[in-house]
Amino acid sequence: xxxxxxxxxxxxxxxxxxxxxxxxxxxxxxxxxxxxxxxxxxxxxxxxxxxxxxxxxxxxxxxxxxxxxxxxxxxxxxxxxxxxxxxxxxxxxxxxxxxxxxxxxxxxxxxxx
Length: 113
Description:
The protein is of the alpha+beta class and 113 residues long. Helices cover 35% and strands 11% of the residues. The chain contains four helices and two strands, in the order αααββα. It has helices spanning 23-33, 39-46, 50-62, 95-102; strands spanning 66-71, 74-79. Strand 1 and strand 2 form a beta hairpin.
């Protein structure tokens, strides 16, 4: 179900000493590609602990960037793609702008909440 994403986890290679995007952005990118990812899978894709994933998901939910729906024993995440970015240098751009650029212009899973 995770397709090629699981073939390129951070755990498979070396994690760079610094990156251009935050872990919050990496979590949103992973969810935009598959809104039914488990926290364990997000952890492997991003290269952070499951506890860090859980904290980030709660922060994104509390800030209105993400909504979680419980379906049976699983969660399905929905991203509010119309939300603006938080930093003053980027506030004229939305989550959709970032995800669209980083997902090669493909349709982003999720919709405005």
